[in-house]
Amino acid sequence: MPISFGLACPACGTLHLINRSFDRGRLTPLSRSDCVYTMECISCGKRICFSKHDLKAYSVSSLNFTTGYARRGQYTATQPVSTNNQSRSRNATEMS
Ligand SMILES: [Zn+2]
Fold first, then answer.
1. Is pTM, for the whole model, over 0.90?
2. Cα(20)–Cα(87) distance, rounded to whole angstroms?
3. How far is the CA of 86 from the centre of ligand 1 (A)?
4. Ligand 1 ion: Cβ-proximal residues, 5 Å cutoff
5. What is the 58 CA–ligand 1 centroid distance (Å)?
6. What is the tens place of the pLDDT at every residue in 30-50?
7. How many structural domains comprise the chain?
């Protein structure tokens, strides 16, 4: 299962994978300094405004990875590495 950063539509839940979306020019940067973009949902047409901080890693099928989007229920959000308990306690030890 490929993992890619993406953004799920808040209205219909369709996941848009950013790696392909950028190439297709679906995203419109509003301000490069703020990393803010708008995107039109491929499924319901809703205008989504987001920043790079809103992107999360999702596990999708190879087919969805190729098409660049996945319907609700066809993707799984993966846990960010930064919330891992072991790495957090190790960092705390190094800082003390
Ligand atoms: Zn939508």
1. no
2. 31
3. 36
4. 9, 11-12, 14, 41, 43-44, 46
5. 17
6. 655 555 788 889 999 998 888
7. 1
